[in-house]
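Re: [help] complex structure
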Amino acid sequence: MAPHEIRRPFKRRPISDQQKRRELSLLRQSQHRSDAQQRARNLASSVISLQSSSSDVDPEILFEAVPELDEGTESESSSFDVRQASRLRGPEARKWFARQLMLPEWMIDVPDNLSRDWYVLARPAGKRCFVVSSDGTTVSRVRNGSILHHFPSALPGGARKKGASGPANSYSILDCIFHEFDQTYYVIDMVCWRGYSLYECTAEFRFFWLQSKLAETGACDPPSFYHKFRFSAVPFYNCDQTGLHSAYTGSLPYVKDGLLFYNKHAHYHTGNTPLVLIWKDESCSQYVIDTDNNGEVPNQQHIVLELQEEGKLVTSDDPPVPFSCLNADFVKQSGLLSGSLIRFAIGDGGLNCVDGRFEKADLQYIGVSNRARAFADSYSKIMFQYMARHSPLKVEDLASTISHENQQDKTPEVEMSD
Amino acid sequence: MAMEVTQLLINAQSIDGTVRKHAEESLKQFQEQNLAGFLLSLAGELANDDKPVDSRKLAGLVLKNALDAKEQHRKYELVQRWLALDMSTKSQIRAFLLKTLSSPVPDVRSTASQVIAKVAGIELPQKQWPELIVSLLSNIHQLPAHVKQATLETLGYLCEEVSPDVVEQEHVNKILTAVVQGMNAAEGNNDVRLAATRALYMALGFAQANFNNDMERDYIMRVVCEATLSPEVKIRQAAFECLVSIASTYYEKLAHYIQDIFNITAKAVREDDESVALQAIEFWSSICDEEIDILEEYGGEFAGDSDVPCFYFTKQALPGLVPLLLETLLKQEEDQDLDEGAWNIAMAGGTCLGLVAKAVGDDIVPHVMPFIEEKISKPDWREREAATYAFGSILEGPSADRLMAIVNAALTFMLNALTNDPSNHVKDTTAWTLGRIFEFLHGSTIETPIITQANCQQIITVLIQTMKDAPNVAEKACGALYFLAQGYEDIGPNSPLTPYFQEIIQSLLSVAHREDATESRLRTAAYEALNEVVRCSTDETSTMVLQLVPVIMLELHNTLEGEKLSMDEREKQNELQGLLCGCLQVIIQKLGSEPTKYMFMQSADQMMGLFLRVFGCRSATAHEEAMLAIGALAYAAGPDFAKYMPEFYKYLEMGLQNFEEYQVCAVTVGVVGDICRALEDKVLPYCDGIMTQLLKDLSSNQLHRSVKPPIFSCFGDIALAIGEDFEKYLRYSMPMLQSAAELSAHSSGADDEMTEYTNSLRNGILEAYSGIFQGFKNSPKTQLLIPFAPHILQFLDSIYMEKDMDEVVMKTAIGVLGDLADTLGSHVGGLIQQSVSSKEFLNECLSSDDHTIKEAAEWAKHAITRAISV
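Output below.
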């Protein structure tokens, strides 16, 4: 029997860095596992709440939910349950629902590889909305979260009707534009289909799925007793010369409001994304330049910015793009609070911007913005509007980019044959 | 045959490889053809005093190896084989073994002792060989002394092999009596006394009842204390070993003896041979360990209802103990910092001092400060080093408030010593102490920062300078930098390290490239510090981290280009590969999300290529690191990871098959989860292979049990990713989950470790159920899950009734209840309403303080309401 070893660690850390890496990995994995689980659960509860929200509102929970959202950071609010969100009211609800939609940036320069990586489609004029079908009913909500229609539809689970719509508990979420004139929901994107989430799928797949699945259900049929509104998939094209031409000039059953460009590889990303772009000119949209409350185009461009602490003015982007500052005394005098949305006109000094930052802007204070607004303008919107007034991006520019790309693609072949 | 065995056993130890190999093969053949005959002739060989010592010793060893193995599965086989032998063979072998205890040859007796203990380890739990203990005890009263010595040794080994609950208390008493009598000063033979003392060390676990009896305990303690004064050094050492073991096993019984023990240990530390002094110090270290544990439990519970009260032995001993330990610090060995295996009285004393500080907190400071102040500037390096070491040792334990002023005053002195002290030893300890300062007194929880704008530059400059010093000193400087960076972990968007970031990274890379970087762990320390600096960096420096990517990749590439390397070089190469993969893993996690993700992912293809090549090298550590890095990469890449799967898949499978290096297996299981979440349904083509491996892993007896819970969780990840396509795996996975669930529902209570394992198993099972339910949600195949619902609800009910689940299990369990209701809806409404879980358990969770449990419970409530309302 030998004596027993008693050596203790000497001048050593209790755990090695490798062990630390191992533990951090495990932590990360279990966090992601519970996120994935949470997402799966929320998908279901979103449906429950969206259709039952009108009937059961617990005032106590309403009281609780609002402050929770206030202190919520970006990550918390994105995991925030739709069930609770449906109990929100006013600006909180608007903010929440607006976050659920993918919002295009305005096209201020032409992306690379347009013809290879992008789709183009003509955006129908109308109200952008989220359409959810489940448990025998269909609800559409516009961007600010208020209900547009509550109706039966031929979407999966969209009407109380036995038959082809599949199992009772299946549900779908569509990204649509409601076109007043022909009372049709034009579907521009598919978010969930028969309970199957498409959030993490590429646009390429979502569009394919949308085109092939929507018609199967009879949702594209004319209205009937169990199907109050017609749905229609918006045609989309590869963004080559032909595709761009078809989207831009092609005749469609709806009034156009600009062109939407979707990056084929992009997932359904809630909030602003540079992977979906909107572009407009006079010949494909009635509303190129923003109008004021009376529907008239003002002489000067109006923009809305958010006031932050110390008088900083920023856009709605994430991260926000800073503009100039408001004078502290002025802020005090006008009683403006940080977080307020403020309207400005752009004066003759115009906008000057370098590398995505505003160097100089001639802003003229107008006042606090309309209360219905949830957000300040985005950088791309301000720039697009400014360009539209001064040196717009023309459809010819898009076309020439595409043809230039095609030539570049061909160049190596030419060299090789030499 | 017997003759032949002797020759074979001698040949098996031949210097001539061919002879040796031939003999080994013959022995193996013999064993396979006739196990009983083989074991019997080995025992006969061992017992035969006419045979050569070498063949007898090897016979005993082979016999021992035929009874026990380290690896659990193999061990079980051997036990079954022994139990299956016919009784007459076993009786003959036992008789041979007992006879050998009387052999005049000491080595042979000792071997027989160990074999007897192994046989006892198998047979006593089966109520076989009942006469063994009685016949051993009868030997005790025999002469000659060498038989007595061998018998005591056997009793010692027996106590080590056998669990106390299979030995009757009457026999326990007799064994202890024999052992303690053998230790008594009245025993004239030193060999007997030594054997008895060592036997007591092993038998202490059996003495629970005896330690509860005041008289018996007094007697045992008196004999042990007397043995510490024996003229024979080995006996003194063994007696102190007993005291060390008593310190942790019977802490709460020591109050009556602690003053005497202090006197004995103090004398030993000051005057005795180092081997004895080390044990005497270890006694106090063990007491500190106990008190630190008890006080931690108090601290955590607020109620102070720990099973064992704290007697504050350390606190009471402070006035005598601290000076004693400080004296030892002056007995350093010249090159102890250069020798990885060194362990001496100065090191033990300092370590103990650190534990004392942890156990008593602020109270230690006044006892140590005069020593430090007196010696820190002395011309003799031993005094300066001892003072610094004392200072470094007491930094963990006392409050920041108590230490802050002292540390602030010392900081400049230390930085100066690091630059100017001529002694390598002093610099080593000084750099280590700086690291301790940053570890315990720098960070977001400390009110007044040690590192300020005024001194930050100087600190970093000195550390970087020190990294060019001798490898052992440079290694400590890297360690200090590690903690310096760690302290800024949650600093927010602006880190004070930003201005120095580039310089720090450059310096760490140069250190890693030093020619002598493989000495003193220097290279490892440099990469570890680099990792921590990157981990704690902010967005301000992300471009610089991006620039690091090609640098580390190039280094990894270079390790893969190695020419023909010697074993030693290859080992170092593999170690480096592990470090570089670890570094890349940290970088991936730093850069793999917005806004750097896009830029970073440009390197992904190349990086993945390198990781795959690492799998071509044989090194478990490197594999594990590469695997962890790939998991992080999969998360960053998302669905794009699909393109790597065709090539990566075979290594994934290899990892899942690696039973021996179970860490690799465990890490790979985690990566399967990452991949499922990244690829979602695109993982489907690989699922047949993965599921097959995972099911094999679960059925394996060889795989370390800690890997099994994560495998269950992994089922959930797969089901969630592929949804209803999991259908084909249901018939394999569900029965496994079910039987594991049954096992884990009730196998609780044994000890803390077992309860913890049971809970991790439950959590894995529940995560699997969650994933499966959510995966099948809204599918027409939901029906397939209905038959499993009763069992799952029963499982939930039974773990609720057991009342020993932790918060994690509670949250997962209530979530499963919701998932079940959500997916199966009205099909199980009635069943749910009958379950306890849907009422008491749910209510308990709804009123939980833990908001994650509450949230999961609210979700479950909602889902249940819906399920039963339809």
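Residues 44-87, 163-168, 411-418 of chain A have pLDDT under 50 and may be disordered.
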